[in-house]
């Protein structure tokens, strides 16, 4: 080996060793990282991927038009709470709040006094049924009479809670069916008094399904196992829907607002059929915005087609959460996070409806259904 060949030979060896020294630890680390990642598969709660999507965002803090929240709950509020409420409502353009939790009798009178009594054009109070005397004969007629008195005392609607049809039972153990004839007198009285009935029947259908890895409300049922509706304790979802639809059909002069899109937010075609069959049926969108937001094209077309039948509502009152409703209804923003993860592990999309539709959802449909709200506070 002459000296020049030797220099070339050792240079090559040197470069090779040098390169190996640099690359080898990195390769080793990468492999180590990979195996570490493989060992640590994140749980469903741990996996919180940050979206890298860059797209237009509109933060809408205030509704484009004044609106009526048809679905809110305020039990026995104090004057201070009501004062604070009005201040908060003003910040988001919430013109009229409907308190569905008015109770009946003296409780209702008090709630009306503290809300409507002090802010006559800002609140509406709905009455509720008392089931204390459910087992005494003539119950339905007594409820109707109490309701008539509640309306004289300022109630403007009847709210029926979800225990009706599910947990409410006669002394003998028989479940009160949603279309139980005992209550016919109550619904006929609502038609006579021209007040709407806002009724919550059943729950999301997933709550009636097995709590397994295919259930899309798995997280919520883990957090609140009591929300599950197993067949051993509850009637099937479809039984409740059948009873409810029978109720709607047998009181065509009574206006019903089925809460939470009637739990058909995941099947808008089915909801459309319910509307087609029953001109006296309306829905609110309270707490089911994620259902619309995951199908923006269908939601948009549905709202345009059934613009006279859908009402704005929020359910659990939290002033900072309304902006999701504004953003979904008023913009075409894409793939944004929802405010309540247990309702939706998915992101939602805006389905921007035309102003005329927006006005109907925000207030015109509610004005039509609710007696005694001053329409002059709202645009044409
Ligand atoms: Zn509610």
Write a concise keyword list for the protein shown above.
380 residues; binds zinc ion; three-stranded parallel beta sheet; five-stranded parallel beta sheet; single chain; 41% helix; globular; alpha/beta
Would you write up a description of this structure?
By secondary structure, the chain is an alpha/beta fold. Helix content is 41%, strand content 8%. The chain contains twelve helices and eight strands. β6, α8 (268-277) and β7 (281-284) form a beta-alpha-beta unit. α4 (139-152) packs parallel to α5. It is globular, with a radius of gyration of 28 Å. The structure holds zinc ion (ZN).
Q: Topology of this protein?
A:
Elements: H1 3-39, E1 67-72, H2 79-92, E2 94-99, H3 105-115, E3 123-125, H4 139-152, E4 158-160, H5 184-193, E5 197-199, H6 218-223, H7 237-250, E6 256-258, H8 268-277, E7 281-284, H9 289-293, H10 296-305, E8 310-311, H11 322-330, H12 355-369
Parallel strand pairs: 1-2, 2-3, 4-5, 5-6, 6-7, 7-8
Helix pairs in contact: 4-5
This protein binds zinc ion.
